Amino acid sequence: MLLGHDDGYVRDKNMKVTVVYNHFGPNCNQRMPRIRYGYAHVANNLYFGWMQYAIGGSMRPSLKSEANLFIAPKVGSKEVTWRKIGNTSGDKWEFHSVRDAFENGAYFTVTKGGRVPKPNYRKEQGFKVVDVKSVRSLTRSAGALQCSRTSIC
Question: Can you give the residue ranges of the Pectate lyase domain (predicted)?
Fold first, then answer.
């Protein structure tokens, strides 16, 4: 899930995206999501293994990861986050983890200091972020439909 056009498309700095109630894995490689510029609120998702990273960013993105369950793969990268370093924007980025849970050695590299960005939803856009203990059951039916030519979806 790539959020943002390309590194040269500065207008994406106004982008605001919510990624919620998803089950990622076990065979996802990266970009769950990858954010260029802009802001993403990632909440109540289940990450069941990844190869390179789960959440990444470049070009000064802001991220609030909230009440997600990250289960690292048995082999490979245990780090949840990735950020592009060495671009012209420097290393300015904001990644925050709030009430996330980590299993099997998973870890999240956060911004040092600073305040956690708020999603600033309008009243009709808001939703309740549930406790991370409920994420497995909340995302149990997430994903592609299991349909066949002879079944009704």
Answer: 1-91
Overall domain count for the chain: 1
Catalytic residues: 31
Cα–Cα distances in angstroms (integers) from residue 8 to residues 4, 13, 24, in the given order:
10, 11, 28
Nearest to 62 by CA among 109, 24, 112, 118: 118
Helix (H, G, I), strand (E, B) or coil at 12: helix
Task: Return the SS3 of 18.
Answer: strand
In a domain, 153, yes or no: no
Give the Cα separation of 75 and 50 in Å (integer). Answer: 10
Residue 87 lies in a domain: yes
pLDDT means over runs of 10, the chain (153 residues): 82 89 87 88 94 88 94 92 67 85 95 74 90 96 79 75
Beta strands in 1-153 (DSSP E): 2-3, 16-20, 23-24, 34-36, 39-43, 46-48, 55-58, 62-66, 69-71, 81-83, 94-98, 101-103
Report the C-alpha gap between 95 and 149 in whole angstroms: 43
Show contacts of 122-128: CB within 8 Å, 24+ apart.
127/20
Which residue segment(s) compose the domain that 59 sits in? 13-117
